[in-house]
Amino acid sequence: MIVTTAELFRCAYGKYAIGAYNINNMEQTLGLFRGCAQAEAPFIIQISRGARKYADKRMLEAMIRAAESIYPESIFAVHLDHGDEETCYDCIDSGFYSSVMIDASHHPFEENVAITRRVVERAHAKGVSVESELGMLGGVEEDIKIDEGHACLTDAEQAKEFVAQTGCDSLACAVGTSHGAYKFKGKQSIHFDVLEAIFKRLPGFPLVMHGSSSVPQEEVRRINTAGGKLDPSACGVDENEYLPAAKLGVTKINIDTDGRLVWMRVHREYLRDHPEDFDFRGAGRVYMAEYANFIAHKSEKLGCAKQLESIRKSILAQRGNRA
């Protein structure tokens, strides 16, 4: 069942967070659905502009539709990740996406407000939820690159004003995380003081945390042992910080890099251990199982495992009351 992120957030707010995972191909799609079925967890499928170019938006939609028919008990939102205004409109008008993110955070505040408000008006007219962003995360994600010198944390007072002026449904905040595998140095972690300040000024409003992969050291080590050359100092978000963030209004947590690490580790090890094999489906089968286990584990850490039936009842009740 495809739902909006707003519907998921009403169920999760203050209790747990929903995992948001990017997909690019069949193996990721099936592994994601399988893992959430194992965990009995809701989830958010994220499609980036890069994925739409890589696999074609029609292929991605067809894969999601097929996976939904294979896993009919699943509850999820289909979300555009880091969209520009043109891509947001294309997704809104498609009738398939239940949620879009307009990322105008690189513009001055007033321009960010104006662009976001235009997208909100177009989206809400068709029942689509809108995520926006204020502040800028450092790091690299596909065609987005922000160096540390230009990254900036979200200002709590400005966040309150931004939400009031735009009418967005959720807000991605810069609280110290970053895109890619190299998030923190030394003992750094999420700036909970910044997050708490935003939470106090926007009580009840869903917040989003981008760049939240944990970058497991064991995955990095195994990739390098199998021929990779990742920096062993790569460091991510401590999974034990997910739930404390959820208690402060974070209802959506984006996890992409970790899934890429699982992909690289499985394929590097498989090719190393099976040099005689030319059937790529062997590595694909291993990956789907490994990725499903990874997703189930993340769902436990996010607190959304075993929440499927309660969410189903809540959303159906919400829809029934509006009918």
TrEMBL record:
<feature type="binding site">
    <location>
        <position position="82"/>
    </location>
    <ligand>
        <name>Zn(2+) 1</name>
    </ligand>
</feature>
<dbReference type="InterPro" id="IPR000771">
    <property type="entry name" value="FBA_II"/>
</dbReference>
<feature type="binding site">
    <location>
        <position position="210"/>
    </location>
    <ligand>
        <name>Zn(2+) 1</name>
    </ligand>
</feature>
<feature type="binding site">
    <location>
        <position position="133"/>
    </location>
    <ligand>
        <name>Zn(2+) 2</name>
    </ligand>
</feature>
<keyword id="KW-0456">Lyase</keyword>
<feature type="binding site">
    <location>
        <position position="180"/>
    </location>
    <ligand>
        <name>dihydroxyacetone phosphate</name>
    </ligand>
</feature>
<feature type="binding site">
    <location>
        <position position="179"/>
    </location>
    <ligand>
        <name>Zn(2+) 1</name>
    </ligand>
</feature>
<feature type="binding site">
    <location>
        <begin position="211"/>
        <end position="213"/>
    </location>
    <ligand>
        <name>dihydroxyacetone phosphate</name>
    </ligand>
</feature>
<feature type="binding site">
    <location>
        <begin position="254"/>
        <end position="257"/>
    </location>
    <ligand>
        <name>dihydroxyacetone phosphate</name>
    </ligand>
</feature>
<protein>
    <submittedName>
        <fullName>Fructose-bisphosphate aldolase, class II</fullName>
        <ecNumber>4.1.2.13</ecNumber>
    </submittedName>
</protein>
<dbReference type="GO" id="GO:0008270">
    <property type="term" value="F:zinc ion binding"/>
</dbReference>
<dbReference type="InterPro" id="IPR013785">
    <property type="entry name" value="Aldolase_TIM"/>
</dbReference>
<dbReference type="InterPro" id="IPR050246">
    <property type="entry name" value="Class_II_FBP_aldolase"/>
</dbReference>
<feature type="active site" description="Proton donor">
    <location>
        <position position="81"/>
    </location>
</feature>
<dbReference type="GO" id="GO:0005975">
    <property type="term" value="P:carbohydrate metabolic process"/>
</dbReference>
<keyword id="KW-0479">Metal-binding</keyword>
<feature type="binding site">
    <location>
        <position position="103"/>
    </location>
    <ligand>
        <name>Zn(2+) 2</name>
    </ligand>
</feature>
<dbReference type="Pfam" id="PF01116">
    <property type="entry name" value="F_bP_aldolase"/>
</dbReference>
<dbReference type="GO" id="GO:0004332">
    <property type="term" value="F:fructose-bisphosphate aldolase activity"/>
</dbReference>
<keyword id="KW-0862">Zinc</keyword>
